[in-house]
Amino acid sequence: MGVVNVTPDSFSDGGEHANTFAALHHCEKLLAEGAHVLDIGGESSRPGSSPLPAGEELGRVLPVVREAVRLGVPISVDTYKPEVMQAVLDLGADIINDIWALRQPGASETVLRHPGCGVCLMHMHGEPQTMQVRPMQGDVVPQVLQFLGRLADTLVGQGMQRAQIVIDPGIGFGKTVAQNFSLLARQAELLAAGYPLLAGWSRKSSLTAATSKSLARVATMDARQRLVPSVSAALLAVERGARIVRVHDVRETVQALAVLESVQANGVR
Questions:
Q1: Nearest-CA neighbor of 210 among 236, 243, 188?
Q2: Catalytic residue (choose from 60, 175, 226, 246)
Q3: Band of the pLDDT at 166, cuts 50, 70, 90?
Q4: 118 bridge partner residues
Q5: In this structure, are residues 121 and 101 in contact, taking their beta carbons and an 8 Å threshold?
Q6: Partner of 240 for a Cys bridge, out of 109, 151, 187, 229, CB 3.0 to 4.6 A?
Q7: CA-based angle 11:5:102, to the nearest 5?
């Protein structure tokens, strides 16, 4: 899943694709590099970010989605607002990727009105403004598993097919560095929910913390310097059962996954 941020304030790319032309060019670049899905987002969810009015988000994403649906690959839209969901699904988007896991009023009803819609339910502790100020306490793995399993099962009970649902443990969304890595180390436990898992480690600050001798450097390092740790985390996530990796650096991730695939295909049986 290649990331297309149509935002001026993304933590990962600093607004490089904040206009329609640049965003569509980036879509084509990611597909040429091997992306299977495009994830288009118009609102930053970085720690401390403020909510964006729905009208402004629609103005950012609709022109991109309108053209991107013609590219011949599944189009995901990263949004938690029902009005944005409705608009992009009406344009032909395939997936709603929701950091709030459809907990906003009207969100689940919106996707359920579109029988073919896929959804990604993400775990987030708190909200973007405060999630890293007061992160989770205790063992996060069972808490995340219970949260995502309950919400996914509720959707199935309301008529959605299990095959339409993907779960995301929400790396960096209200968790400490150690908690984030425990979700990767024990990722197999999350598969017990019975749903495909999406891993979103790309350019997350926890990767910098793991590779830096000084945690004080985390905030000052350019997100692109997290390329090797990001690819490493994606590789480990897939090896541990993730079905989708959401990444900014598609070419490098595809190359690494090709090596993993070759090892798995030629392993001792």
A1: 236
A2: 246
A3: very high
A4: 95
A5: yes
A6: 187
A7: 95
